[in-house]
Amino acid sequence: MAFSLFGLFGCRAAGSAPYTNLDVAAFAQAEGRRVDVRTPEEYAEGHLRGAVNVDWQADGFLERMEALFGKEEPLAVYCRSGRRSAAAAEKLAAAGFRVSNLLGGYLAWTEAGQPVTLLGVETFRTEQGHVDVTLIKHGSLAISFGGYSIQVDPVAAYGVPTDYAAEFPKADLILVTHEHADHLDAETVGLLRKDALVTNARCAEMLGWGTVLANGGSVTVLEGVRIDAVPAYNTTPGREKFHPKGRDNGFVLTLDGFRIYIAGDTEDIPEMADIKDIDLAFLPVNQPYTMTVEQCARAAEVIRPRILIPYHFGNTDLSALPGMLPGIDVRLRAMQ
């Protein structure tokens, strides 16, 4: 009851613009982007669904927020108990943001039985809005853009089990790179099925539906979402059997000018020289099935994405990779 009594009170420090304190019930209904201002370690232990992590205690907090969000976007911030987020809300409000703060923070949220998740979210500004990428696991990603929900290689049972029904809406678009069980899960595809599936010929045959896209093909099945299929295959002698040339796809998505390369299962192949102007790349690093760390670095040097997130890496030690790629923002995330 204490929280609800103060749930809609505005707060103002001397010389600053106001922000709004909300109790758990009001915060759950609040508009705007959720921002977790705790440390990355706290965020990784559990956070509100859809929340982006921007550490209040890290250098350049305000600059990072201004790079990620426009002043016209409402923001809903929280921390562990509400203290750090109140300080963050005050600074953001003073900078011209529209801000609400969760009274009692994550502790109050969980005590009220509200849902939390372990799935991290990365957000990227485009000319018209945002692209949000949820890092599910292994080769599985979810992308939100322009009101669309896009799923890439959705697999429920592989690795850490994923409850797709609880975590995600039906998918406006499903992309499946190839037929291996850690990428193709017919039951989960059926669960998420709404409108469109884009995949290769073998997967469409196995699933009994879908738009077939071969290497080099392009299609636009959702307004503003261009899909280009690119090769994905093994080249090392003895490994060709895992992913033969011409069968599987990687995908390049173009969303409001923001270009994402999702490599699928591949080594550093010559065709990567044709993949250009990439903002965000997902490259696999789990030899012998895909790339070694050195191959991944070579591939990134060819593609030169603005941001690289290695994925599909199992137990591979990626710690040396950022130092091998100066000039590229390499983000090591939990994507085993």
Structure description:
The protein is of the alpha/beta class and 336 residues long. It folds into 2 domains: 116 residues, Oxidized Rhodanese, domain 1 (3-Layer(aba) Sandwich), CATH 3.40.250; 211 residues, Ribonuclease Z/Hydroxyacylglutathione hydrolase-like (Metallo-beta-lactamase, Chain A, 4-Layer Sandwich). Helices cover 22% and strands 29% of the residues. The strands form 4 sheets. Strands 9-10-11-12-13-14-15 form a 7-stranded mixed beta sheet. The two termini are 42 Å apart.
Furnish the topology, listing elements before pairings.
Elements (H helix, E strand, L loop, with lengths): L1 H4 L4 E2 L7 E4 L1 H6 L3 E4 L3 H5 L2 E2 L3 E2 L7 H8 L5 E5 L4 H12 L3 E5 L2 H7 L4 E2 L2 E6 L4 E8 L2 E6 L2 E5 L11 H4 L5 E3 L10 H7 L3 E4 L1 H7 L3 E2 L5 E5 L2 E8 L15 E8 L2 E5 L17 E5 L8 H11 L3 E5 L9 H4 L4 E2 L6
Parallel strand pairs: 2-7, 3-5, 3-6, 6-7, 12-13, 13-14, 14-15, 19-20, 20-21, 21-22
Antiparallel strand pairs: 1-2, 4-8, 9-10, 10-11, 11-12, 16-17, 17-18, 18-19
Question: Under the CATH scheme, which class of the largest domain?
Answer: Alpha Beta
Distance between the termini: 42 Å
CATH topology descriptor of the largest domain: Metallo-beta-lactamase, Chain A
Nearest-angstrom radius of gyration? 21 Å
Strand order of the largest sheet: 9-10-11-12-13-14-15
User: Helix count, per DSSP?
Assistant: 11
Give the CATH architecture of the largest domain.
4-Layer Sandwich
* Average pLDDT score: 94
CATH superfamily heading of the largest domain: Ribonuclease Z/Hydroxyacylglutathione hydrolase-like
Beta-strand content estimate:
25-35%
